[in-house]
Design a protein that fits this description.
alpha+beta; Rossmann fold; Glutamine Phosphoribosylpyrophosphate, subunit 1, domain 1
């Protein structure tokens, strides 16, 4: 796990200054060392290293291939690097310098080419690779977007880096705010790729690579033009139609056996390290399964951590402790009182570097900092909900659509108006909040539109935002007819790359911690789409396959627990200890980008308890705090 940066264009001496300053900006991602490769010519690369595999100098970057054709700077892990090494050694001699996955990556690129290498890799990564022979720069990102990569037309050249802060060190940096990107952030809580918060700077989308050549720096593309140049080396719509691996439909028992074995193997691959490895344990289904696989495959006692809140309604510490005792792990609780959140909010703009608004970012940062005091690597249970239909919203959306879908678009519009009026008439409370929330969602033209509205922050429409225009949201393929499958498709294409992964990557990297996500092993993702579409949820619960697997491994009540999530009581905190911070930010709000009357109306309703506008207001406040620092 590391940070990468580079620059295409300009002269070597000016490029050297940018490489040094941008690498320093990424020091938190790689506190163990760094390197710069900046020859005479059109390109320079830099790297910051968090040493996990091959701690020697043989693992240092930027790294050249043995024949000198390729140079790579790489962030992430290739978990199947040993298997790839064997493939590279088959039938020919390779002069290996060490045992790092980076060396395997650059030699695989030299042997197979960039796109084929990407398809062979099981890992999380972003990298830049320069081809001396063709004078091409390749930028690439892993299939689900675990690792970030920004690219921007800055100062007459093309700058790229793991985080925006590195690009901002360029002396010709102009900054600015992209209104379209801001609207998306205030609606969903994150900026979807290929947009970034800054004009002229883009996020490489998950599952894509981009080839650039000297001269490309003279023509900065629009987001649409950039999309047209991307090479999509991985496509979820192809995976969703994959046949069973056996060539026939698996029985339930066979599928469960397959999932059992794959999870164990995915966890074992992600436990590979030359440093200690721990796990985040919430006591829920996903993290418990991951830790149970660690216990089965570890040579010693597994170490686990959980976050504990003062508020009993959101505290899972007791469940996590019970699971830890059952599995025999060495367990530690990290307390997250409201005071800790208050101390952290001023740091969030620097930690997340781009406006980002998921309240779970607070405990994610706190637990990452606590774990990093003991180990540099931890496994998490993230991804299970997106792959196996585990969110409560999945169950609720299907249930409501079975009723409202029959109304037709005109009927849903009328029902939405009635529900919003009812919400205004009801006294403050759950009924009022539910009516308003449903009213905001029911105007969808079809189920996909309805579900995308479900993903938006409640009350975000009341902020007076203009509807985003230019970014096309993912649409499930026509052959994917089951409602649950269509929701999983949107989750994996939209929320997972820039929502879940942004939260985890920035929180962990701010502490120099590497997080690994076994459920996103490509073999498990493929299996999740091979299973019958109607088998993931039922009887009022989701994640049926994961529940069955956990019941097999740990008889008892753990598999029956309802999902709680990594939530925090942000609504209460905004009315309480975070209120002065919020009021101070709102007093300086820029009227040119946000509608002050609309925001103040939503804020007043939240403070008075008439609306639960906690997520919409958290998005506004996270943006305002970021804009004060970086805007």
């Amino acid at each position: 796990m590391c940070g990468l940066t580079g620059y295409l264009g300009g002269d070597s001496s000016r490029r050297e200054k940018f490489l040094r300053t941008s690498a320093v900006a990424l020091r938190h991602r790689g506190p163990d060392g760094g390197g710069i490769w900046n020859p005479e010519g059109p390109i320079g690369l830099a790297h910051r290293r968090l040493a996990i595999v091959d701690l020697s100098a043989a693992g240092a970057q930027p790294m050249s291939s043995a024949n000198g054709r390729w140079v790579v700077t790489f962030n992430g892990e290739i978990y199947n690097h040993r298997q790839l090494r064997e493939q590279l050694c088959d039938g020919r001699s390779v002069d290996w310098r060490g045992h790092s996955d980076t060396e395997v990556l650059v030699e695989a690129i030299d042997r197979f080419g960039v796109v084929e290498t990407l398809r062979r890799c099981n890992g999380m990564f972003a990298f830049a690779a320069w081809d001396h022979e063709t004078s091409e720069l390749w930028l690439a990102r892993d299939s689900t977007g675990e690792k970030p990569l920004y690219v921007g037309w800055v100062g007459g050249g093309i700058a790229f880096a793991s985080e925006l802060r590195a690009l901002r060190t360029h002396p010709a940096w102009l900054g600015g705010i992209d209104q379209e990107a801001l609207t998306w952030m205030l609606t969903f809580g994150y900026v979807p790729a290929p947009l970034s918060i800054h004009p002229g700077v883009f996020k490489l989308p998950a599952g894509c690579c981009l080839a650039l050549r000297p001269g490309d720096e003279r023509n900065a593309p629009s987001a649409g033009e950039l999309n047209g140049r991307l090479v999509r080396w991985w496509r979820l719509d192809e995976l969703t139609g994959c046949p069973p691996a056996t060539g026939r439909r698996m029985t339930g028992a066979e599928a469960l056996d397959r999932l059992d074995a794959l999870l164990d193997d995915a966890v074992e691959l992600r436990m590979q390290a030359d440093v200690p490895v721990a796990a985040m344990l919430s006591g829920g289904i996903d993290s418990t399964l991951v830790v149970s696989s660690m216990v089965r495959r570890a040579s010693g006692r597994v170490r686990t951590f959980t976050v504990a809140f003062d508020e009993p309604g959101v505290d899972e510490a007791a469940h996590a402790a019970a699971v830890a005792r059952s599995l025999g792990t060495w367990h530690e609780e990290v307390r997250c009182p409201a005071g800790a959140a208050l101390a952290l909010v001023d740091r969030l703009p620097d930690i997340y570097d781009e406006p980002f608004a998921d309240p779970a970012q607070i405990p994610a940062v706190l637990v990452s900092e606590a774990i990093r005091q003991h180990v540099p690597v931890a496994l998490t249970g993230d991804g299970g909900d997106e792959l196996f239909e585990g969110y409560q919203r999945h169950l609720d959306a299907v249930a409501w659509w079975r009723v409202t879908g029959r109304l037709g678009e005109r009927g849903r519009t009328s029902a939405a108006s009635a529900l919003r009026r009812l919400s205004d008439l009801l006294p403050a409370g759950t009924a009022s909040r539910t009516s308003g929330r449903l009213g905001a969602r029911l105007e969808g033209a079809d189920f996909d539109d309805y579900y995308r509205r479900v993903l938006q922050f409640p009350e975000s429409a009341a902020l007076g935002l203009d509807a985003p225009r230019n970014l096309v949201l993912p649409c499930p393929p026509a052959g994917l007819t089951a409602l649950g499958a269509r929701m999983r498709f949107v989750d994996q294409m939209l929320g997972l790359p820039e929502g879940i992964h942004t939260k985890l990557d920035r929180a962990s990297m701010s502490a120099g911690l590497e997080l690994r996500v076994p459920f996103l092993d490509p073999r498990i993702q493929a299996l999740s789409w091979e299973l019958p579409a109607d088998s993931h949820a039922g009887a009022g619960t989701g994640k049926l396959w994961l529940r069955r697997l956990l019941a097999r491994r740990m008889p008892g009540g753990v598999a029956e627990r309802r999902k709680q999530g990594f939530d925090v009581p942000i609504g209460e905190w905004l009315r309480g200890p975070l209120r002065p911070w919020a009021m101070e930010l709102l007093s300086d709000m820029d009227d040119s980008l946000l509608s002050r009357p609309h925001v103040e109306k939503v804020w007043a309703a939240h403070l008075a308890g008439r609306r639960d506008a906690s997520y919409a207001m958290w998005a506004v406040l996270c943006y305002l705090a970021w804009a004060r620092r970086h805007g």
